[in-house]
Amino acid sequence: MTCTGSCNGNPCDGVDHCDGNGNCIDVYLPSSTVCRKAASGCDIAETCTGESGQCPMDKFEPTTTKCSGTCNDNPCDAQDYCDGNGSCVDKYLPSGAVCGNTKAGPCTIAATCTGDMGFCPPDEYADSSVTCAGTSQGGACDGKDTCDGEGNCVDRFLGGKVVCQKPTGYSRPIYCNGKSATCPVSSFLEGNLREMTADDPTPVQSMLVAVAPSSPMVLLGLVCVVAAAVAMVTMRQRRDELALDDATYKLLATHEDASAAF
């Protein structure tokens, strides 16, 4: 027969019953019965003792127990651990740990963790004082490439005072143009013939020669025209040095015209 013993209303109390001698016997739930569920991954579920109606004191996982905090799966997240009081503590990678893009090149500074949050700060960019290797390399007019402050490497080229091809024969030195890594193409006979100097490139002669080599006579005529042009340009260049008078210069001009007519 059931009755009400001295211990009642507790999580581990069972159904009390009479013992047949006029006494009410307290009955308790068996020791396999959970009387308090685990509240989190850092809490431990308690079970009845089988000898008392009271549920044992709440116990927690030790600080060596791994858990999942509120901040997870971010670049600067580390393994979280219990605090020994039932809570999971977020852990982060130490300050200075690289979390940004390490493959973006020398103009991008990979971000590092702060040590107090799981998120990775944005990458920073190198300023224009940082050198890099652009797409153009090894050209005669290639300069020292630099970053642009926005993560890009900018090709730099040598300017107009840098000789990229020394003079040979009747040719003049060729200078870089600041726009390309390639030394500009130049010849004595061009659509716009220029005598280039490092300080003041000045056009001194303009000639356009279009020849369709159809016979030896045409080629011979071309040779004569080239020879006359060479002589004319050379004499104009050195006229002041040789102090030629006007009469002598006119004679040379007449000779040039006669050669061209041939």
Mean pLDDT: 80
Outline type = rod-shaped
Q: Catalogue the unreliable spans.
A: 187-215, 240-246
Beta-strand residue percentage: 5-15%
Global Rg: 48 Å
> Based on DSSP secondary structure assignment, what is the total number of beta strands?
17
Helix proportion: 10-25%
Q: In DSSP terms, counting alpha (H) and pi (I) runs of 4 or more, how many helices?
A: 2
Q: State the secondary-structure class.
A: alpha+beta
Head-to-tail CA distance between termini = 145 Å
Which strand order spans the largest sheet, edge to edge or round the barrel? 7-8-9
Sequence of secondary-structure elements: EEEEEEEEEEEEEEEEEHH
What summary fits the major beta sheet? 3 strands, antiparallel
Explained architecture:
There is one protein chain. With about 260 residues, this protein is of the alpha+beta class. Among the domains are: about 1-55, no CATH class; about 125-185, no CATH class. It has helices spanning about 215-240, 245-260, and strands at about 15-20, 25, 35, 45, 45, 60, 65, 80, 90, 110, 125, 145, 155, 165, 175, 195, 200-205. The strands form eight sheets. It has a three-stranded antiparallel sheet with strand order 7-8-9, with no helix packed on it. A two-stranded antiparallel ribbon has the order 1-2. A hairpin with a 6-residue loop joins β16 and β17. The longest helix is centred in the last third of the chain and has 27 residues, at about 215-240. The chain is rod-shaped and about 145 Å long. The model is unreliable at about 185-215 and about 240-245 (pLDDT under 50).
